[in-house]
Amino acid sequence: MSSSTSATQSRSTGKYDLGPATRRLGGEALRRTNEVAIASEHSVALSEATGHSVNLAVWTDSGPMIVRWDYGAHALSLTARVGASLPLLDSASGQVFFAHLPRTMTARALEASLAGRTRSEATAIAQAVRDRATARPLAASSLVS
Residue 97: CA atoms inside 13 Å, Cβ hemisphere, count? Predict the structure, then answer.
């Protein structure tokens, strides 16, 4: 494999890949990215376009947490404060995380969310959330094709 600081080329295949300097530059760019600030620009636009409140949640060790709330023109019967933790299976944000994150990341929050429920009830709830997550992309793709 031949290499420079910005690109490397495989001697056997001739294909190029990122070199060490380019990988370091990409890593530094990712480190400096403020994902919440980027997403916040979109949440404000979404709230203004729809008139509805929009919350932005991030994944933490204990589950989803609200990090931004943009209030819309339409009143909600329920509001949560920034910094509030959300239940994994009983909130829309929690269900999105549960459906798309690896099970190893959601296991602890899932245990807490299922406390006090029977095993069969817990299994049914978890499966229903995962089923909805896989059904929606399929339904959306049928509208486009």
Answer: 28
